[in-house]
Amino acid sequence: MTDDSVLELRGVEKLYGETRVLGPIDFTVQKGELLTLLGPSGCGKTTTLHIIAGLVEPTVGTVTMSGRDVTNLEPPHRDMGLVFQNYALFPHKTVFDNVAFGLRMRRVGREEIRERVMRVLDVVGLPGVEQRQPHQLSGGQRQRVAVARAVVIEPQVLLLDEPLSNLDALLRKRMRLELRDIQQRLGITTVFVTHDQDEAFEMSDRVILMNRGRIEQLGSPEDLYDRPESRFAAEFIGETNLIDGKVTKANGTTVSIAVTGGAEFQAPLTNGAGAVGQEVYLMVRPERVEIARERPADAAAIGARVTKRVFSGDMLALTLTSADGLEIVSRKPSVSRYRDLEEGSDVWMMLEECRMLPRDDTAVAR
Amino acid sequence: MSGERAFSRLLLAPITLVYLLFLIAPISFFLAMSLFRYDAFELYIPTLTGENFARLVTDGYYRDIILRTLKIAFLTAAFSLLLGYPLAYFLARTKTIWRGVLMFLVIAPLMSGVIVRTYGWIILLGSEGALNRALLWTGVIAEPLKLLNTEGAVLVALVHILMPYMVFPLFSSLASQDPDVERAAGTLGAGRIRTFFEVTLPLSKAGIAMGSALVFTLAAGAVVTPALLGGKNVQMLGQQIYDLVLSTLNWPLASAIAFVLVACQFVIIGLYFRTGKAKAGVV
């Protein structure tokens, strides 16, 4: 445990009877960082958050906050602020009384409560609503009140349980940046739970990708996108081409992978896989599939035909099929050099930044 | 759209007719009757007079009955609330098999008639009853206690008989609370007791008002239970109306008493709707 870690989970597991819903999982959260638990529903991310908050007791393992074991502490004795998915505001109390609640429980003086509530409402961009009832507020305003109520007590850790999922698409995008801004201004250590990859990427310092109760991969958004370590990680985050292939050469740091039709591609060695003869996946992100009209100097270019063209405004998705039946999707900005590509156009494709992924892995259930 | 509305109005026609014939008409009838003059031979003489109401205020006998009825109805509601709230709370929060078992026990009394249940209490409370025998046998008392024909007996039985009317509104308002709201109070530093008084109790206000209004009005109008368990010692308004209509044949006075009873009940229901309206906006 480093000096900067505020929260640490070690060997945490949750079993309901014989059914293991979580773990074992281990991770630490550094002071001031925003760490996201990302994954499909049922992956254990909310259970993890509830274990941190003290709402669920882990079957095994410990939760440590700033060096103190809090595993068996009830929620009121943990120093955490939790923002619920449905906000869980007190419907019978005014905005002021909602936000003041945690301070009253801590026996803060009236004057100070007043001052701190007003200040935090200002921080979340809601001045002047303190006398309203929650039902008189819009969804976005309620969300801010919930954040204000959780941060006004200046908890060591702020926990956010899918706080944006009940907002409409436009507001959700704006609140992402705003939440991140509030979090950074207050410098508050935060654990954020979401199933939305865009949210996770735009807001987080680090992301934990979870699957079936386990940590699939932990890293910065760039790590997860550029260097997925499993088929699940590659498919859950962003779009991806997965091509069946076989390792033909291995030389320390890179491998050669042969795919349908015999074309070979270079990829860096990933987590242990890569013995010669091994069946693997070749992975390439669609925006990293380059397209040329004329045969390029690059020897690895493969001749192909556009077999499908989907226009979505800013982007074009082009399905390219080689003479050998290799089918790869390329995503390109809809600028003139790509826009006049039609179904049936003959092109050359070049696969850049290929990755190798092991086969013994499950597909992501979407 | 208008066809749909016409259809829903048509559906309301039978119940409207029933209410008009059997609620509005009788109430209007006894309201008018309460203002008529009593006559031993004619039953009543249709000349307007306030003497029936005056008698309820000036005649100590009737005044006592009115006050006793209000007191017993109030106490019944209060005790039902105190005893029913923990039960409703448990029912609303438990996920175990107890929920089904206790729910059945709460409903079960409704399946037997009020007279059966009242006789049950007579068996328990009589001077030869189970309770007295047990106390005599254990030596706690030397002489049988006089339990029947007391206000206490009426109160205990009314609380028992009317308990489901308290528990169900409380249960439904407690069960419909978002459990995350209590959890939120916990994460903000409130212990279980603080959470109850700050969050759970105020959020169940509608259930408290509904249950109390129901139990109060039903207790104030009770006839059989006070008659059998209270006897002549514990006269309540319901029996008085019954006696005046069937034995004394003083219909105008009976109507005046009925009017007082209905007025009390309307006040209570009115109070309920005021709290209900305040709640309705909160979702």
Write structural notes for this entry.
The complex is a heterodimer of chains A (366) and B (283). Chain A is of the alpha+beta class. Chain A is 24% helix and 36% strand. Chain A has nine helices and 20 strands. Chain A has helices at 45-53, 95-105, 110-123, 139-151, 169-186, 197-203, 221-226, 231-236, 336-339, and strands spanning 5-16, 19-30, 34-38, 60-65, 68-69, 80-83, 157-161, 189-194, 206-211, 214-219, 241-251, 254-259, 264-268, 279-284, 289-292, 302-311, 315-322, 327-333, 346-351, 355-358. A six-stranded mixed β-sheet of chain A has the order 6-7-8-3-9-10, with helices on both faces. In chain A, strands 13-12-11-14-20 form a five-stranded antiparallel β-sheet, with no helix packed on it. In chain A, strands 15-19-16-17-18 form a five-stranded antiparallel β-sheet, with no helix packed on it. In chain A, helix 2 crosses helix 3 (110-123), helix 2 runs parallel beside helix 4 and helix 3 (110-123) packs across helix 4 (139-151). The longest helix of chain A has 18 residues, at 169-186. The two termini of chain A are 36 Å apart. Chain B has 283 residues and is mainly α. Chain B has a single domain, classed as MetI-like (MetI-like fold, Orthogonal Bundle). Chain B has 13 helices and two strands; from the N terminus they run H-E-E-H-H-H-H-H-H-H-H-H-H-H-H. A two-stranded antiparallel ribbon of chain B has the order 1-2. The longest helix of chain B is centred in the N-terminal third of the chain and has 34 residues, at 60-93. Chain B is globular, with a radius of gyration of 23 Å. In chain B, 35% of the residues are buried. Mean pLDDT of chain B is 88; it is low at 278-283. The chains are: A alpha+beta (366), B mainly alpha (283). At the A-B interface, strand 6 and helix 2 of A face helix 8 and helix 9 of B.
Order of helices and strands of chain A: EEEHEEEHHHEHEHEEHHEEEEEEEEHEE
Provide the gyration radius of chain A in Å.
25 Å
Instruction: Tell me, briefly, the overall form of chain B.
Output: globular
SSE sequence of chain B, one letter per element = HEEHHHHHHHHHHHH
Determine Rg of chain B (CA atoms, Å): 23 Å
Helix content percent band of chain A: 10-25%
Structural class given helices, strands, pairing of chain B? mainly alpha
Count of helical segments of chain A? 9
The major pleated sheet of chain A works out as: 6 strands, mixed
Strand order of the largest sheet of chain A: 6-7-8-3-9-10
- Compute the number of structural domains of chain B: 1
**What's the CATH class of chain B, please?**
Mainly Alpha
Shape verdict of chain A? elongated
